[in-house]
Give the backbone structure.
Amino acid sequence: MRQGAGPHLRRSLTVLAAVSIIYLLATLFVTNSYYQLIMTLVPVWALFGVSWNILSGYGGQLSFGHASFFGIGAYTVTLAMVYWGLTPWVGIPLGMLLAALAAVLIGIPTFRLRGHYFALSMLAYPLAILYVMQYLGFQEVSIPMHREHGLAYMEFAEPRIYTLIAVLLLIGGVVVSMVIENSRFGLALLAIRQNELAAEAAGINARRWKMLSLVVSGMLGAVVGGFYARVLLVVTPESVFGMLVSAQAVVVTLFGGVASVWGPVIGAAILVPLAETLQAELGTYLPGIQGVVYGIAIIAVMLLSPDGLFWTVRDRLLRRETPHGVSEVTGLMPDAGSGGQPLAAATRPASRGSGPLLQVERLSRSFGGLRAVSEVSFEITEGEILGIIGPNGAGKTTLFNVLNGVLAADQGSARLDGRPMLGKKTYGVCRMGVGRTFQVVRSFPRLPVLDNVIVGAYGAGMSDRDAIARAIRALEQVGLRGRAGVAAGQLTNKQLRLMELARALAGNPRLLLLDETLAGLGREECDEVLAVLAQLRAQGMTICIIEHTMHAMMRLADRFVVLDHGRVLATGLPRAVVEDASVIEAYLGKKWLTRR
Amino acid sequence: MDLGILVENVLNAVTAGVTIGCIYGLMCIGLGLIFGIMRIVNFAQGELLMLGMFTSFYLVSEGRILSFLGPYWGPFIGAMCAAPALFAGGALLHRFLISRVSGLRTVGSLDEGHFGQLIVTLGISLILQNGGQILFGSTPVAVRTPLSSQAFEVGPIYQGATVFLNKAKLVAFFVAVLAAVVLYLVLEYTRLGKALRAAADNPTAATYMGIDVDRAYRIAFGLGSGITAVAGGLMATYISFGPFVGFDYVIIMYSGVVLGGMGSIFGAFWGGVTVGFVQQFSALVLPPQLQNAAMFDVFLMIVLLRPQGLFGRSAERA
């Protein structure tokens, strides 16, 4: 569990219990069988929204094909009952297994895609299955009746029992969702959604977490589908694999609130009765009115409150209260203090030998015909600050990207403490002990500063307790402790740079790769950041920093590596390097040399 | 004799692939303008196609305004009339809805506004499909022309193999190619076309060059809608359709545009032709119910095998 999760979870569970009891009591007063069906469908679609939310809300992997899992659940339950006489009590778990399998099969190729390509591809899966189902002759399959063994076959004469089961299933789904939201799983998903590359550079294995979210969300989707088939007694390919099914999940969640446990519940509670009632009252004159209402609802939500009702209302309410984020964090102070001691020991062991910490040999990388990095060799010894300088386009950032696995090298080698770094994924390089910051700050703008930094600690595989303590200490190291509870989006440029530094520090790195950490800072801000870096060196940190501003580098760096057109132009002590004729030429042009 | 049947089937698949492919090509150009060039993810493109079909249907069916044109000329003129109608419709959609989630407003935002575009156009798609069901009913209709049941026979060429050229498809093919060529010339050589391409390529820079980017986008979106609608009108002469027909074709359109390479009008056309070919040839080996499933598989293959080179990660700078 993450920081402060305990009381927060307890409060949410109380609300959940209260709402469920009130809802179930309300069913006692509903006698019209159609309204009873609606009362069952509200938790059904809410749960489907909860399931979609785990993948697309928290993880940001927008899917328009969630019907795949719904349909697999529905057809598994129905066909298992028709052909093998299996009760839904077994059929639903079976459907979950099949959905998990399908999720893996779908995820392996599809997670190679991003953004709207992912969304469009996900759309194709349920439609392909739909046509296969038609081809196999499962146009319309009815669930056989078992009046004498009602309970054993999940068949009840009293429709309110279905509502009860639906509510229990929803409670289960909401609890799963709450646990995810408050765990490292949820934080990893939120980080991936906001900036996948930054998450990877902080040690998060994005692929694995995304896959896990697809499996969990697919299994929940299959539960909904299986139960839905049991309640409606008939399945057709269109009614369980169709576009409108996928749309239901998207619509209720977006309407209610994305990436919030309550969003899908609120959305379903409002939209399902509205659409069903309209369908019942006007359906004969206006067939399809349900789809029209859904369409209008999502357009309106997107234009008026893009994150959904829950967040809009919450933001309104919160604006009136004092921001309590900071106090929440100060409540953790003693925790951090006690955790601070063992952490000193938890930092990585010192270098084994006396050899260099980082050894780069003849590293090259081309883009087409352009050799962005060409046969670059250099070393960094433990505890030193190495400045990498060079004009624009010299290949400095490309060098970093190759070193931390964002780009593959064409040839050459790079070793950290003798172990090869190349060929690893970005998160793998991070776990070897290489922290990285970016030229353009890559933060998770909607997460609090502390959570931003905790992502780095989780990336290094720390336990919850250690991660929180380490993150707080990292914030202290960069002097941002006081801003821990503020959303990262509200920080100044300097604070963002420091926060990114803290995120890299939280993974207990042995080597920091800093890409233009001083870019865009004023002189005084620059001095503050330099002071932080100097202090880090005093604590024994090894730093490799890219920088344009010469005067700052002269004060900070122990040694320079000068790059130009992808090649190493000069290496050595700062004074010697700036007086090197070829360096002056690269920076200022030939004319300057002759003038001198 | 068996060989003869095979030859006949293959030849007919080729001719059908070419004619239907070119109509698909026109349809893909519409999406190519919107998705390929302007980078707006439009989910409702299939519904624009559907509206094109119904526009033509309501103009030229018995007792309507254009029914005096007769069953030979009428359906094809009706198809062309869908262009101005849907141009206006598309421009309005853009003015009031799409522009709020695309163009200058989303430059540099988290995912260039694709999330918002997907959602808003999904909403439009739901409204048009289901609203279409309310307005047009769910019984499939068709634009009747005697040409659709007539064919030129070529052959017998080889062991009795004969090629049948459906006249409706043939005329539709010519209209489609003509429309594609005209559009190409407009985009390539007119001032308007240059402004559109500049605005799409770099909206910020285009603004500084004095181009009214919002207007350019509106026109381009209208053109994209109108072009797809013409293709719809042409297809209406040889298929029957209902309000939900767009869905099957939206996937075909995305396949074509992605296959042809993003950002190229020409590419989108050839992408559409290719998809038409694949579809006709899959008819040789697959039962009819599975042809659509095959289409989705092809789409997945295309997207999965060519994820780079398209936009997305490749454009990202660390």
User: Anything to note?
Assistant: The longest helix of chain A spans residues 206-232. Residues 322-352 of chain A have pLDDT under 50 and may be disordered. DSSP finds 26 helices and twelve strands in chain A. The two ends of chain A are 64 Å apart (CA to CA).
